[in-house]
Amino acid sequence: MIENDFPDIEKILRKMTNRKEKNMARLIDGKKISQQIKDELKEKVAAMKSEGKEIGMAVIQVGNDPASSVYVGNKKKACEYIGIRSESYELPEETTQEELITLIGKLNDDDRIHGILVQLPVPKHIDEDTVIKAISPRKDVDGFHPQSVGALSIGQKGFVSCTPAGIIQLLKRSNVDIEGRECVVIGRSNIVGKPMALLLLRENGTVTVTHSKTRDLKEVCRRADILVVAVGRPKMIDASYVKEGAVVIDVGIHRDENNRLCGDVDFESVEQVASAITPVPGGVGPMTIAMLMNNCVEAALL
Ligand code: GUN
Q: Ligand 1: distance of its center to the CA of 214 in Å?
């Protein structure tokens, strides 16, 4: 076992040395860090179980959008790994808003359920905001409820959206200082950009949020010590947007012209100037589910 581990370590060290010698950015390994978090949670859940506390999460999907089915499947798998009991609700496309709200109400009142997740997007005839508001803030493991978002904005306790929360963990566990640094977020979505800005602010970063109407985007990005890219366009951000030595976090996930996964960042170009960078896949993506699991364990402790 130990003998078999050595070649791996050697390989990793060689890879790291090669990157350093070639002056390429350090890789921030989301796969490894998310696995650490899941293993910590697994231990915590086992300890809670031995004291008689069982954690339950309800996962609701309306319709059968293939991408949503993959995400939901991964979330259920993560629950199983950690020891969280997941209850799956696969509802037909024609489900009415009233039926969905009734189910959420029942789950809100069910003591065996600690977290409720409605996979988005929901079909067009259902109003997303109404559905999010129907989930009890105590069970809002996605952190999408207005109360959760409001609590984050005024520094009070509440669930935080999983992707930005995962990015903070990536930075902290990779020893990237946030305090006093120039942080630029590209994108202002409710799920990523806005909560990301609030979390960086909470860590005492100096935060700028940019968006499609930002003038001189390149200039603004080139000020960043930490650049979080959630722009939604494949490989848009190349080295010309990045200051020498910046840390670059890529939230995007797309298929490129060769059907290979890629992010919003042009990795081959940016790794030449950044000091650290998240790859796609294996960067931000795996952190989202790890933080969802973390929120569910926290919900059970409320
Ligand atoms: N659809 C895409 N991302 C997410 C997510 O993080 N949570 C939920 N509920 N739906 C999503």
A: 26
Interacting residues of 145 by C-beta distance below 8 A, sequence separation 6+? 132, 133, 135, 137, 159
Give the C-alpha separation, 129 to 145, whole Å. Answer: 8
Distance 192 CA to ligand 1 centre (A): 11
Q: Are strands 247-250 and 226-229 parallel, antiparallel or unpaired?
A: parallel
Helix (H) or strand (E) holding 60: strand 56-62
- Of the residues 38, 61, 140, 142, only one is catalytic, namely 142
pLDDT in tens, 127-169: 999 999 999 999 999 999 999 999 999 999 999 999 999 999 9
Write out pLDDT tens, residues 28-69: 999 999 999 999 999 999 999 999 999 999 999 999 999 999
DSSP 291: H
Give the dihedral of Cα atoms 275, 191, 33, 78; nearest 10 deg. Answer: -160
Spatial distance between the Cα atoms of 173 and 84, rounded to a whole number of angstroms: 24
Q: Whose CA is nearest to atom 2 of ligand 1?
A: 120
- CA pair distance 117, 60, nearest whole angstrom: 6
Q: Work out the angle at residue 203's Cα, subtended by the Cα atoms of residues 197 and 209, and round it to the nearest 5 degrees.
A: 20
Q: Which atom of ligand 1 is nearest to the CA of 68?
A: 1
Sheet holding 276-277, edge to edge: 26-27, 276-277, 247-250, 226-229, 182-186, 206-210
Interval between CA 288 and ligand 1 midpoint (Å): 9
pLDDT tens sequence across 205-217: 999 999 999 999 9
Q: With CA atoms as reference, report the closest residue to 26 among 281, 249, 284.
A: 249
Identify the residue whose C-alpha is closest to ligand 1 atom 1: 120
Which member of 29, 119, 140, 266 is catalytic? 119
Q: What is the pTM of this model?
A: 0.93
Query: What is the total residue count of the chain?
Result: 302
